[in-house]
Amino acid sequence: MAHNGAQALIRTLVASGVDVCFANPGTSAMHFVAALDDVAEMRGVLTLFEGVASGAADGYARLAGRPAATLVHLGPGLGNAVANLHNARRARSPVVNVVGDHATTHRFDVFLASDIPAMARAVSGWVHTCDHPARVGADAAAAVAAALGPPGQVATLILPADVSWGGPAEPATASVAPKAGRVVEAERVEAAVEALRSGEPAALLVGGTVTADVTALRDGARICATTGARFLAETFPARLERGAGIPAPERLGYLGEFVVAQLAGIRHLVLVDTHRPVSFFAYPDRPSVLVPDGCEVHVLAVPGDDAPGALAALADALGAAPTPVPAPGASRPARPVGALTGETVAAALGALLPEGAVVIDEAATQGLWAPGATVGAPPHTWCSITGGAIGYGIPAALGAAIGAPGRPVVNLEADGSACYTIQGLWSQAREGLDVTTVILNNRSYAILNMELDRVGAGAGGPAARRMLDLSDPDLSFTRIAEGFGVPATVATDAEGFTTALERALAEPGPHLVEAVLAAG
Amino acid sequence: MAHNGAQALIRTLVASGVDVCFANPGTSAMHFVAALDDVAEMRGVLTLFEGVASGAADGYARLAGRPAATLVHLGPGLGNAVANLHNARRARSPVVNVVGDHATTHRFDVFLASDIPAMARAVSGWVHTCDHPARVGADAAAAVAAALGPPGQVATLILPADVSWGGPAEPATASVAPKAGRVVEAERVEAAVEALRSGEPAALLVGGTVTADVTALRDGARICATTGARFLAETFPARLERGAGIPAPERLGYLGEFVVAQLAGIRHLVLVDTHRPVSFFAYPDRPSVLVPDGCEVHVLAVPGDDAPGALAALADALGAAPTPVPAPGASRPARPVGALTGETVAAALGALLPEGAVVIDEAATQGLWAPGATVGAPPHTWCSITGGAIGYGIPAALGAAIGAPGRPVVNLEADGSACYTIQGLWSQAREGLDVTTVILNNRSYAILNMELDRVGAGAGGPAARRMLDLSDPDLSFTRIAEGFGVPATVATDAEGFTTALERALAEPGPHLVEAVLAAG
Description:
Chain A is built from 21 helices and 18 strands. Chain A has 520 residues and is of the alpha/beta class. In chain A, helix 10 runs parallel beside helix 12. The N and C termini of chain A lie far apart (66 Å).
């Protein structure tokens, strides 16, 4: 049977393991939508905003380890997807980002036309416009291969409407399989051995594919146990396996001065699938590069390398004993009582977090206590806001729940961040996903109140403070969630929060618990 | 007193009449925020999402006729603003789009860094990075001048954090004033005279600055009355003055086949501050360019020209009588009864629309009847979704209410479109604005159900139809609005809707009326 371009595209994607599409379609994508009935293996997930689709693809990729497709409409749709594509780019999440475009015969600079490739390049490692139905199959396969890397990246395939509806088109003849990372040269392993055996203070800083891999974390911990090196992880790992029994590298802090303290005295820093420590923002009279003076940086593995393999080789070269591997034991905090604060929310989470849970962390300032309170919880996965673009949490939770079927998802979400992509709750309800959203509602952009002072702008006058305040009017996330079809509860003390969280975790389907935090 | 860069920027803007800033700030913009206390003339309006800020700036400019500033944070913040900047670009709304960037000393390709200029160019007529505090004043003045045009455009000024906090900086020494449009050459007026006097069927197609200007509309109507030419307006005017006593050009339809019917037989088409008719999208086997075969196109004025002046000159050259000017008389439909449909919603609006109201129209399919039902209402302003990027209505209503103080704003909003930038409701509540949002809730992307068939994809199977359906779960815009601090009412019949609309219009402050439409 002859296919049109859209059918050939979807068949090619499915043959290569891309069988979920987070979509916010428009007229440019109608044949793609119609083709969902021809290729039943592709699961279409409707979102109410393109930023939900792109964030979901990021969350999906972090858990499933393979790309989902997105489907967005023209330049403005791509624009709406940009922030979460940025996060995906920084997380090295593979994403096949399909942008429906005007027909090739309809290139007039009016109405919805804009420069799609220029915008796409800002967030994509690969951008291509498919210009003929006969090339859809090959181009789709190339997009999947580009997305997979390694390292993973956003591959944007621009699909003009007439390429979608035109034909005959053929799916690609061969499916695309993930490729292994590049094997690290022996010289780099040897250099790391030398650094770690120098007798000078050293640290192993891991990220990327290492934090996502329990075996690699164990190898890192063994290396550090053998050499006395500090075991560190990047600030916002895309995926961190953790919990009782899993070695826990110390994560670098968000604030530069914390990182400076963490790295003080280190003379050798071995980087494994991460970049050298740099502060998130610049501040007057503070350093941006956080590597201590006199500290030598050694790159064991860069993104795209087989970093777990390099760590295993390094552990072997060092003769690191296979056991014991230092790791946190099983322990949970007591159920909290009293005032509801970031700290008691964290305690409740530590008391209740189910085994195998996925935590999507966009809690900002009030989430400071959550990692510590859960380090001894049963094994779970922690996903951070790797690219720093807020509005990632609710969409990523949607995608993670689809990418990790059967695993409960807990989204720790700051009030300000929640408002960026709040319509993602509806897709969680539509898909019946087991996502518990915890809103940490402190009625302010608290992080910016802190930053205002840190950048040297002082405490701010009334006009400035009003720009960082979310209390006039107060937001009711409970009502908003109900409006989007997600059952919700509000809690104002620790006992009430713990009970609500327990119920939300126990019941199937999505829930939202709004934690109205005590004034700090 | 010495200023820092942020203070000099804001003083320069205020001196040139840019005294409203729609902001969603981040760390990069903390000194801008702090400076709001130093320059009391600048009104900062906090939004919960950058797309609200950019859409508000568009709505503000359409009503105030001068730019507002936006304040967004880094590339992802700009990405979130892109869709509504695209609408502003197509509406030729002047906007000074300030993007806070990392400090010039902090250019590392990690975390939030991305290619801001590349993204900005896709939606801006002018893009500039200010690289030193000493140049902030001049660069801000250049941004205002670029935004003002004519024609108006988005001017993006990228402001690194250290330029913002650095100094000494001086405001620009001279304020920037709007410039008049270019005077149209006499030859073009003469060519239009010849075309309209040819004796062949002719039409005058107006847009841009003409539809925003009652005098220009009257001149257009006089020209058509004298020559027998058809009086037409572009499909989605950025600003259309209308109502009883104001000449009403016939707007071109959204669907190409309607436009083809409207233009059938026309041999001379005179364009005044608009482009030649092109269909919104391409469809298989339908034309994209909608100018009839054998029709000659004459350009009287392009964007940036003094189009109202050109029309006045044309009317003079034709010896058009000053009166009578054909215009709709005062008439309102009766208050509707019975089922709640797009048609009865329109009737209620026609029955109740206050004099001087601003209608922000993002009603999509269910808004078809609203222009007809209000043509005899007291004079009012109608703003369309000029760029076609949905999510424009709620933000534009916010901006319009600030740009036109004392005028009631009615936002006709489709359910699907409302979900893109729903958090804009909160800023309406925070600013206490007299905005009435009418949600036309038909529980579907109805326009896409139509487009699915029109592009030749048929009616769609169950998987396709589910991607266009908003009923599982049903959205409650009433609850969502209440969650964002806006009082809301749901209506399910025409009488209830009319009563709710009447009350919302009578009470100060924002309201939302959710019209749950009868199944079609």
